[in-house]
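Reopening: ABC transporter permease still failing for me.
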Amino acid sequence: MNILTIPLRTMRKKWLKTLLVFVVFGLSVVSIVSLNYVSMVVGESLEKKLTAFGANILVTPKSEKLTVSYGGFSMGDMVMGVTDLREQDVEERVLSIGYSDRISVVAPKLVAMTRVRDVAVGVIGVRFAREEVLKGYWAIEGGFPERADGVLVGAKAARKLDIGVGDTIDIGGYSAHVSGVIAPTGGDDDSVLFADLGFVQHVFSRPGEVSFVEIAALCAGCPIEDIVVQLVEALPETEVQALQSIVKQRMYAMHFVEHLILTVSLVILFIACCMVGATMLASVNERVREIGLLRSLGFSRRGVFGIFCFEAVFIGMAAGVLGYLGGFALSLKVLALMDMAGETALSMHPGHLALTCLLVVGVSVLAAFFPSWKAASIEPSTALISL
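Support: Ran it again with your exact input. Result attached.
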């Protein structure tokens, strides 16, 4: 009989109590693992959906602003040295950064001014497939253009120009078909026309050029500042800025989910630890005579302490393995019930299993520390008197 066989025999002898502790600890691990996986998928899904509310990074050409005033007459701000970006070049550089997997949408835009029905109006060249992802909040009467000369009209611009769905307008000498009118958004989108980027580049003789690029980056895997730093290195001739208000709103939503899950997990873990500690403490009180005999036979305090710690290690190891497997299976079931099984492909990782077991064993030993210390503190004479 050695320090390892004693805990195993005790657990086998008191199998009902051991089973109860294992079930409580195992269910706690199942809950925490499943919550972690579900929150990870829900968080990623939530962030992808948030990209439909606009970009969070803006790439613009470098420029120099000069405020001109002479003789009491102000000429306002003058922007010097503005050059348009090259669409293909910017996209290639953006997608070459280390965090390119965090880039959700790259939406180049070309801004031009023209007159439609003798009214000055701005025309924004866009890639409609990307705008459909980026501007998920648009409510459109009609639909997105399905032809190269199709345009979307903002609500204010439609009223000002007196045009509607199905009308034909002239943009820079080229005929364009109005495929939809955007409902009021309260922003700049209300006052402009949106046309295909290739069409606008052709009409205004600016092939391959864009005025600025909007980027929607997923913030869950890294700070947005890190993505901006890499973009600045990849695009040194441009100005890259994170739209902090949008970033903060998204991070708040993400952190709320993470903090909620963390709080629930900590509560579950605390209850499980209390259960293990209370059960081990009761076991120590029941085994005072046994501890006294072990001490009389020559077992040191450290040996007795180790016997109870090994019991906690065995329970924690078993609860960690089965709890992880059960939690992974439960998370798949929960995601299927939430109709989110296809959002992200979950896979079982041996490293996660090992880390879970290590953490559960550590927590289990920590919970059993006081009962083990109490058992090691029992004097042999005190225990033998009770015989």
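Residues 4-51+250-385 form one domain. If you still see a failure, please send the error message rather than a screenshot.
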